[in-house]
Amino acid sequence: MTVELLDNETEYARCFDTLTELRHLETKIAASTPIMAATLPTLRSLEDLNRNLHRSGAVGEKGFSQIADRLSFHISRLEGYLISAKALQQRSQGTTEMLADHLNLRAQESAMRINRRIPELTKETADDSAAVRIVTLVALICLPATFVATVLGMNLFELDESEPGSPGRTLLVTANELWIYIASSVLLTAFTVGSWIALSRRQKLVRSRQL
């Protein structure tokens, strides 16, 4: 399957490169054809001028024949170039249209494959969302117990069993540094919540500007 995909991508890139070259060739032909078409009347005018000069005696027979042969040769070649350019332009246009249709069909085929994959991707997304919900639920269930265990393990509380006049009675005594824990927790919580609110508002502002 991987080899097939690589071959398809290579074929697609080759078709695109060929299409670009044909477009460039069409541009060159379209630019050169009017130049050749404009040059042809000039050569024919030179032929007429050569005849008039020969009739008036300004050009001899030998010079007239040489110039006439040269002009006739260039006119024939130029007319052949014009015919070849028009044929090449038509052939290039046909090949370009065929390649464009091929690329459009490939794009439609890729879109159809993606559309067929959408239900599967939707199902996978739903499964991932369900897994995330389960993990979140487990975290919410375990979070209170984790919090209590953490606080009790910070040496902020002590069990005092030596209260005078109350044998067998145990008291929970808080440390004097408890206020440091409470103050730092409140400040860090406020900073975290404030940062989250600021980032959320910034993202909404960026999305609104993009729209």
- Percent of residues in β-strands: under 5%
Specify the CATH architecture of the largest domain.
Orthogonal Bundle
Looking across the biggest beta sheet, what order are the strands in? 1-2
CATH topology of the largest domain: Helix Hairpins
The largest sheet, given as strand count, sense and whether it forms a barrel, is: 2 strands, antiparallel
Q: Briefly, what CATH class of the largest domain? A: Mainly Alpha
Compute the number of helices. Answer: 3
Shape: rod-shaped
Please tell me the overall pLDDT: 76
The helicity comes to over 70%
How many strand units?
Answer: 2
Structurally, the number of domains stands at 2
Radius of gyration: 44 Å
Distance between the termini: 40 Å
Order of helices and strands: HHEEH
- Quaternary structure state of the chains depicted: single chain
Indicate the structural class: mainly alpha
The low-pLDDT segments are: 1-7
Description of the structure:
The chain has 211 residues and is mainly α. It folds into two domains: 2-126, Orthogonal Bundle (Helix Hairpins), CATH 1.10.287; 154-210. Helix content is 85%, strand content 4%. The chain contains three helices and two strands; from the N terminus they run H-H-E-E-H. It has helices at residues 2-56, 61-152, 178-210; strands at 157-160, 171-174. The chain has a two-stranded antiparallel sheet with strand order 1-2. Helix 1 (2-56) runs antiparallel to helix 2. The radius of gyration is 44 Å and the shape is rod-shaped. The protein starts with a helix and ends with a helix.
